[in-house]
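Hi, here's the filled form for the chain we discussed.

Project: internal
Contact: R.S.
Residues: 601
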Amino acid sequence: MAAPFEKTRDKKGRFAANKKKRVVSVPRYVRNEHSYTSANISRTDQPEHAEGDDNWKEGRRIVEFGVLLSNLRHCEACRLGPVALTYDSVVGELQKGLGGYLYVKCSNNDCNHVNRVPYGSTHRVKKLGMPCFAVNTKLGTAMIDSLGGPDRVNNVLAALNLKPISQKNLKMIERRAGNFVESIAKSSMSKAAKDSFELEMEDVGNEESKKAQEEMGEEIDGLGVSLFHDASPSVKKLVCRESAALQSPELLKDGTDVPGSSRTVKDIFKGRAKLKKRAPCQPSQQQSLKCKKKLVSKFPTKTRSGMSCAVDTAWQKRGFDSLTSHTFFMSKAKYGKKVVKTVVSHRTCGTCKWWQRNRPGQEIRKHRCVHNHTGSARLMESVSGVQGIKELIDSGTPVDILEGDGDNTMISRIKSELGITMKKRLDKNHVIKNIGKRLYALHGTKGVKLSKTVIVHLQKCIKYALAKNQTKDDLEENLKAILPHQFGDHSCCAARFCGFKRNPSEKYIHRSLPYKAALKNDQLRQHLQPIFDQVSARAAQYVDLGSSQQCEHANKEVTMRIPKSLHYGNSDALDFRVHATAAFINEGRGYISKHHVGFSI
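And the returned structure, exactly as it came back:
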């Protein structure tokens, strides 16, 4: 019996042929991303020019004429010039992304030196090595701000008939620009947080002063002062004693003590007489005197110790299995709607995973690891909130009030980990949206006749109630009257919001309901009553509502730079784009010019 034939298997377990495969050596720097332009890939590590190299004749270039002509004034070797730029004098090209060098032969027959002439402005990031072209650095900023990843950039370049750039070089360009974008965004957020904190504390202090002034008592005779309503009993007693001593000068004859005081009336007036005997300061002396200790310009407020922020977290993938998320902390609309802090969370790092998968047991190469979260995607919101609050406290701009959706997980985690009791303001739009979800769920219930027109009208009535009522009792009264009002029952209505109460003699028309008439389905009212009972029971929370719409706007700006259909979370590309969004919201398009100024380009 013949021995069984053994076949080899590949890594996936499939049978593989024993034939030797022909290995074709391909340069490591070549990445064939676009087959239609594979012959024109720009490589920064390609060898020096060769005679008869005609690649410079193909495609388009971005040329700065001032830089090109200034470098053609004279030859580097013989110092004669100008160097002629003709079809025959150009012998090659060294391309560096969108910039590069032309190799131009000197027109002097005794010299024939080949000059390397850049056709774009350059700048230096490191002292050693070749300089970087400004157009490449600006391309990195464009990748972060608007273009997208390397593949999208090469698609744009191919459409413009510009030579594509290898993906490795594009990532280097993006990382060089992204690090500086992050520094600009962090400085901008720090300034916005400080300004917002100072403005809000100043407003709170003014409100406290105004309220205290209204609650002050009458002026005390003889002293010209008045006491605060919350002054301590010992202070009140002391002021009354001093006032009694000033109002009873006849006690000076026998030097009797002021009732309840260790000082006599004579002592009080002797001290004041000494003050009067002091010689007044001359004007020259007053100008030369300087206070050694500076007075504190800003005092802490009594009712608040921090500012209020709108907070919202968004995930780069729909659902609760996303690998990345970002959280924005933004100031109130009154203080500019500025981003004061951003937190980006990653559940994975692409470089670490590649080395663990393909090079197990080897030390992972040095890189910027972005893996900073362990746990579920839903946990990212509360963990990011704690991190942002802690960083704001460390920077001297603490937060007292958070405005956002109805999720209290962040509040409880802040209390347990940081020991801070935060006040939560619900977002008005989230409140209306959550009530609408319950109404639309009832709309889909079999046997319940609830149209979308009625749902929209009920949401509109709740919006009016939340906007017009400033006290708990008025809001609760209005919310309880909304549902009976739609069914023609006006017993709970008030004249300030019900037209039937204002004009009972006229026929009342429900303009937004079907057929402009009141609803008549008792079964529908029984299903709606529990929903509105819960809404009216939470009237105390709905009196003081906040808004996180500025965070929704920031999330929309992020999706323009990071579409949910693409994954940027394996590297620091996500951090660059989130920080670019924060810089754009705070500084506008001017942050790009600041970026270029930082690179001296």
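Let me know if anything looks off before we file it.
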